[in-house]
Design a protein that fits this description.
A: alpha+beta; Heat Shock Protein 90; 5-stranded antiparallel sheet; 5 strands; about 30% strand; globular; B: alpha/beta; Transcription Regulator spoIIAA; 3 helices; about 35% strand
Chain lengths: ~140, ~100
């Protein structure tokens, strides 16, 4: 398992994205898959960096595991911030007219659109978000 | 991210180069606050935009709402990767993409 722990602040976003990209490139993932994973990693990490420990800061851990036949990447985000289940957030209505469209809820919606499985658990004082993506 | 502006009277073209993510979106947002004054014809040139995340989409949505009041806005040269995100979120049908 590949694992990285950083302080959950926006300045570390690129570090976590680079970590993910590096491991996907090593497994010859397509550019499209890499971009989709980058989007997933960004949206979750930014959520943790913005809300989990607010107004303090704390750590975020990101893990990647790979499976074969079929090829899949298992990604886990762990933080010790406030309990928060992002999957409870209602999806934005993508059919709404521009004036009714809200700027919220897009991040987690993009995450759900770009992974095949996603589960949330709060255990031992930690938010644990597990995702699986086939490639 | 890099921003290049080209103004021609009340027409403004903004070229966004690189990645429009949570770290760069606030910069574009700030730039637009003043740059859009008096603009009736806004064009975003995304030829060199490689990546967009929700933070970037929010900036586009705010810009679109503002331009609906004072003129029009369009996106040009949108790459396949960026288009995929616009499609996924329904933004493709909210905006003029040429």
């Amino acid at each position: 398992m590949e694992k990285i722990t950083v302080e959950a602040v926006l300045e570390n976003l690129q570090t976590v994205i680079d970590f993910a990209t590096e491991h996907l490139e090593a497994r010859d993932c397509s550019m499209k898959i890499i971009m989709q994973v980058e989007l997933v990693v960004e949206e979750i990490f930014v959520n943790i960096a913005t809300y989990a420990y607010c107004p303090e800061t704390g750590a975020a851990t990101f893990c990647m595991e790979f499976e074969e036949n079929p090829n899949a990447v298992l990604m886990t985000f762990i933080d010790s911030g406030k309990p928060y289940n992002p999957l409870e957030k209602a999806d934005p209505d993508t059919e709404l007219a521009i004036e009714e469209r809200d700027v919220g809820g897009l991040g987690i919606f993009l995450v759900k659109k770009n992974v095949d499985e996603i589960t949330y658990e709060y255990a031992d004082g930690k938010n644990i978000l597990r995702m699986k993506k086939f490639f | 991210m890099e921003i290049k502006k080209e103004q021609n009277g009340s027409a403004l073209t903004i070229k966004v180069i690189g990645r429009l993510d949570a770290t760069s979106a606030p910069e574009l947002s700030k730039e637009l606050t003043t740059a859009l004054e008096g603009v009736t014809d806004l064009t975003f040139d995304f030829a060199e935009l490689k990546y967009i995340a929700s933070a970037g989409l929010r900036v586009l949505l705010v810009a679109q709402k503002r331009m609906n009041k004072q003129g029009s806005m369009k996106l040009i040269n949108v790459s396949e990767a960026v288009m995929e995100v616009l499609d996924m979120t329904g933004f493709a049908s909210l905006m003029t993409i040429a």
